[in-house]
């Protein structure tokens, strides 16, 4: 491959609001897939992956580690948090190197239920803290989705009340529209905004939220920056197992994958020209959308985490960023981000 890598300043990103003195690394870590499937990734492998990410973060910065109350199979929703409790039991000295963000605010038995009531938020926070077992402080809590039944200002007040009780330290928001973000930020100090950002998830509302976040001086933590693995170039109709959970998603249906493969081909071409992998190009593409954007890819493999983190220092030209935008605009993305039922998924609340 050609060698035309230009490095960028890979120094960290300051969080917003009450966390504005905390600097996180330019690449974070999502841990959904460590416990989402059955069987879960073995502790030894999961621990090695998490530890490798922490060790890649320089002094003066923290790893933004993203978990949730519901990152587990039915009947064991708190599996991810329990994994983290076991990890920090083994490595207590690493707790201060991690900024732990946890999503909650769904129903106690269903992630499809959004409940921002004071009672449910307290239940959710209590469940999270119980699962963490005091082994790691919950630095930030965020509602996974916006509850359309309750004004966001009331939800922010409920979270501020829980902070005053010492339950956690900072407030985040997730899957929030630009207009609702403005309202939330007027009611509480927001530390981070979690939305999906990738070359195939760059909708009009995505762009509005990114711009609004910059105006408010709040960083974006970008989940699924690799399109749930599809944009790495390692997944195709032929290689994705029939029982893979991603088969349920509309973009992973056979026809959609065949169409969307054209986006992967464009990314792969740009990556090869630059001497990097498609995964690194996709992560760099997200990072280069703005200095306040922190991708949070996940992996259970140490070598993949090292590959991902190396992308944080790769600078893309405007032409390289725009070339992928142009391809996506030209051919379109087939399939919605989840199940083509946004009213159920509560996207862009």
TrEMBL record:
Pfam families: Aldo_ket_red. GO terms for molecular function: oxidoreductase activity. Residues 26-327 form the NADP-dependent oxidoreductase domain. One of its GO terms (cellular component) is cytoplasm. It comes from Tulasnella calospora MUT 4182. Keywords: Oxidoreductase. CDD domains: AKR_AKR8A1-2 (cd19077). PANTHER family: AFLATOXIN B1 ALDEHYDE REDUCTASE, PYRIDOXAL REDUCTASE-RELATED. The keyword Transferase does not apply. This is NADP-dependent oxidoreductase domain-containing protein.
């Amino acid at each position: 491959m050609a060698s035309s890598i230009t490095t960028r300043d890979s120094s960290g990103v300051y969080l917003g609001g009450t966390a504005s003195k905390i600097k996180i690394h330019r690449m974070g870590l999502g841990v959904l897939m460590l416990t989402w499937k059955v069987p879960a990734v073995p502790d030894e492998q999961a621990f090695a992956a998490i530890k490798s990410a922490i060790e890649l973060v320089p002094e003066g910065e923290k790893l933004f580690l993203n978990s949730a109350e519901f990152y587990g199979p039915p009947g064991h929703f708190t599996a991810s948090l329990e994994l983290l409790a076991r990890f920090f039991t083994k490595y207590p000295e690493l707790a201060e190197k991690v900024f732990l963000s946890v999503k909650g605010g769904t129903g106690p038995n269903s992630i499809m239920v959004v409940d921002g009531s004071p009672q449910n938020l307290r239940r959710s926070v209590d469940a999270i803290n119980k699962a963490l077992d005091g082994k790691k402080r919950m630095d930030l809590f965020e509602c996974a989705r916006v509850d359309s039944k309750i004004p966001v200002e009331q939800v922010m007040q409920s979270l501020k009340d829980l902070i005053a009780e010492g339950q956690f330290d900072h407030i985040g928001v997730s899957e929030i529209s630009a207009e609702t973000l403005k309202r939330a930020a007027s009611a509480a100090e927001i530390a981070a905004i979690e939305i999906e950002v990738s070359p195939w998830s760059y909708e009009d509302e995505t762009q509005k939220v990114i711009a609004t976040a910059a105006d408010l001086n709040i960083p974006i933590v970008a989940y699924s920056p690799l399109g749930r693995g599809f944009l790495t170039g390692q997944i195709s109709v032929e290689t994705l197992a029939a029982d893979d959970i991603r088969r349920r998603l509309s973009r992973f249906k056979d026809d959609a994958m065949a169409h969307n493969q054209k986006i992967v081909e464009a990314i792969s071409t740009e990556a090869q020209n630059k001497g990097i992998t498609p995964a690194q190009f996709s992560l760099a593409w997200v990072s280069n959308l703005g200095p306040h954007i922190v991708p949070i890819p996940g992996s259970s493999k140490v070598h993949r985490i090292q590959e991902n983190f190396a992308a944080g220092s790769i600078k893309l030209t405007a032409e390289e960023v725009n070339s992928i935008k142009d391809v996506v605009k030209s051919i379109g993305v087939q399939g919605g981000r989840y199940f083509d039922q946004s009213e159920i998924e509560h996207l862009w609340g």
